[in-house]
Amino acid sequence: MSPSPVPSGTVPGPRNAITDVPGVRVGHATRVGGGFLTGTTVVLLPPSGAPAAVDVAGGGPATRDTAALDLRSGGANAHAVVLTGGSAYGLAAAGGVLEWLAADGRGAQPVGEAPEILLPLVPAAALFDLGRGGVFAARPDAVVGREAVRAAANSRAFAPVAQGCVGAGTGAVTAGMKGGIGTASTVLAGGTVVGALVAVNAHGSILDPASGLPRAFDLGAAGEFPLTTPSGVEHAAAQHLLAESGRAPTGLELPNTVIGVLATDAPLHPAAAHRLAVAGQRGMARAVSPVHSRSDGDTVFALSVPGTSAGSATDPVPAVLAAAEDAFARAIVHAVLRAVSVVTPFGRLFSYRELYPRACAALPGPRTLLRVGKS
Q1: What pLDDT is attached to residue 365?
Q2: Peptide bond preceding 345: is omega within 30 degrees of 0, i.e. cis?
Q3: 57-92 pLDDT, tens per residue?
Q4: How far is the C-alpha of 357 from the C-alpha of 16, rounded, in Å?
Q5: Parallel, antiparallel, or unpaired: how do β-strands 50-56 and 63-64 relate?
Q6: Which of 107, 148, 192, 299 minimizes the number of CB atoms within 10 Å of its CB?
Q7: What is the C-alpha separation between 175 and 165, in angstroms, rounded?
Q8: What dihedral angle (degrees, nearest 10) is formed by the CA atoms of 322, 317, 181, 135?
């Protein structure tokens, strides 16, 4: 079965990543072993920052500085966005990012008599992966945050983004199957770039229960998801394997979430930036079911990083929003297809690749098995 093309007039960017948006860089810090199975991912923006918005649709979010992006306050410029494991504890990673940014001379000057003091804005969202590496207290902190933002700062412009079991996606799980972090981008006919970065730790499933293919499989551009439709035998075997493995070992039915970032080089006012974040939630609903439950912390940040694309003004906002919905859904599929299986102290977390090996025979990328020992 071959994938359908993306909507007419749009194609994935050169790296099919959020870093196709000029000025956006991504860095990961990953912790595996010694009780850890977690990490942090930072989206680093130009030194002046970028207009930002957020939409929280889940009932159990763990977030930081989202109130600063409220439309009632007129919006604000963010200097970096943090996606992290560790639930509310992992939000400490954002403090490390803030300290690094201020030391690097990034951030707004506060009102007062200390103009040398900078106050970067670092909104953040966390997913629940506590204890998945064997030790509940093994979670991201400020040191991990600084490592992730340094990785972003040291990356080259338009660099590819590592996907799967890295950064905030390291300990992610979706419906008992291994989740991860994924990215995607779309370039519109007028030249506007829209990119998405998503950490998939959903309570809901990304799979079509009838076919075993990802729900958003039909959104893939040619060659983007080189899967074949699983046979009935392979699909049944995969579902049996998940059931026999316990599907939800101790700790995995606790709060789950999808957290992500959308960025575009289209200049957007605060209300339009918020609509961009909402478009990400729609993309999430196309790729995951169910979504936005009481225990989910589904959170999407949106960034407008204008000034570097000659074509950005020629694409209307509706086209940007449609591309954002599409890119966010595709990034979710990438997260799961790039993940690898993990052996943890409480059992094996099966990846899609391991569950559907024949369907994934032509899928590129790593197939290494991770093993996590309790310290």
Answers
A1: 78
A2: no
A3: 988 899 999 999 988 877 899 999 999 999 999 999
A4: 24
A5: unpaired
A6: 107
A7: 16
A8: -120
